[in-house]
Amino acid sequence: MQTFREIDPFALDLRLFHLIRDEWMLVTAAREGRANPMTASWGGLGMIWGKPAAFIFVRESRYTHDFLDASEGFSLTFFEERYRPQLELCGERSGRELDKVEACGFTVQSALGIPYFAESNLVMLCRKMARQRIEPEGLYLPEVMAEFYADGPGGGPDYHDLYIGEIQKVLSR
User: Fold this and answer.
1) What is the mean pLDDT of residues 14-40?
2) Which domains does the chain have, with CATH numbers?
């Protein structure tokens, strides 16, 4: 397996919309020495407070939400197509019911105290900067409320929290 090389976040040349929507990513954080990944196809990159940043959206009901709240940072990892079954598992199954890292056969590595996977081909290590709940008062499109927030696991809406992370290090193959 080719080794990672560090690249400047400003040197990233990505087809970002395709990468996140179609190829997906794993959002991973650690709690009490255990890493938990979650597949995500929502998010973005940009600038805030003068820093390169990643924006991710995680529902409060997701097990990964607890890990994000307990950690100081998170990773976004992107994979080759051959890892699609593992990304599907990480999106369909909860870390409450199985160890997704073990089930996927992933190798956990760590940098800056943040877990990521040796099998990935692009890693963004992020330090948490902010978390903000998506509230119904802030949703301007009724179709968004109807399609994405009508019924959560408890019968009511299951809103996302927006996490903003400073991209501190990017690793690429």
Assistant:
1) 95
2) 5-172 (2.30.110.10)
